[in-house]
Amino acid sequence: MRSLLFAPANHPRRVEKALASEADAAILDLEDAVAEAEKGAARNALSAAAALPRRTLLFVRINALSSYHGIADLPALPPNIDGIAIPKCESAAEVGQVAAYAPKADLLPMIETARGLKAVEEIARATPRIRRLAFGALDLALDLGLVPGKDEAELAPYRAMIVLASRLAGCEPPIDSPSPEFRDLDALKASCERARRMGFQGKLCIHPDQVPVVKAAFTPTLEETAEAERIVAAAEEAERRGQGAVQVGGTMIDAPVVARARRTLEARR
């Protein structure tokens, strides 16, 4: 799960484009991308959108459960969606509230507030239907009063908390916040590379042009794959010979390095 593309649920052409895109999942948005006056129309459009042909997984982002619209969104969720993004999630109780309305869908809590960050481990463990968490940098920065620079170094500790909570709960690595400057693809690539180094597996997208950049950034390169293959092959040969440590290219290889190489090969598939 490397790229998840938002599309406002009340814009049919953008919904169709997202569903036909190369993204791993399309997220029909009822929240930030929809004006207050259009919330009802977006909600009413869900069933028709969920019936369209698609080449991606289909998620819906509801409104925050602290709002009237969030509560109204729940009974409108189509039964055939693959997942639900829960914005500004702040407790396991909120997760349970959403889970009751869509018993088969994956749940994607979005950690975007100080309260959500404080409860992130509780949220991650709320149900096995949470396969991964997502990070919302803009909302968290607003909530904390931060003014991040281009490299968002001010948000690094909070990203690390989400990666750690995901690992402790047995979830997949989390999904990173979208980059709002969608025309600056070089900046997007740099942002993806930072997130990948920090332990994220993918990134939210707000424009179709971001999808190929994001997918490429979170996919191991051919060079990384070849190096991983050499490490795994050397480790397997050493095991057959009953050797403990093994050397590859002048570097001693131990168990964590082999495990990382196997993970790289898995991510390439």
Structure description:
This protein is an alpha/beta fold and 269 residues long. The protein folds into two domains: 3-217, TIM Barrel; 222-268, no CATH class. 44% of the residues lie in helices and 15% in strands. The protein has 13 helices and ten strands. It has helices at 12-19, 39-44, 46-50, 68-73, 92-99, 114-118, 120-124, 137-144, 156-168, 185-198, 210-217, 222-240, 255-268; strands at residues 3-8, 25-29, 57-61, 83-86, 106-111, 134-135, 175-176, 202-205, 246-248, 251-253. Strands 6-5-4-3-2-1-8-7 form an eight-stranded parallel β-sheet. A two-stranded antiparallel ribbon has the order 9-10. Strand 7 (175-176), helix 10 (185-198) and strand 8 (202-205) form a beta-alpha-beta unit. Helix 10 runs parallel beside helix 11 and helix 12 (222-240) packs across helix 13 (255-268). The longest helix has 19 residues, at 222-240. The N and C termini lie close together (12 Å). The model has no long low-confidence stretch (mean pLDDT 91).
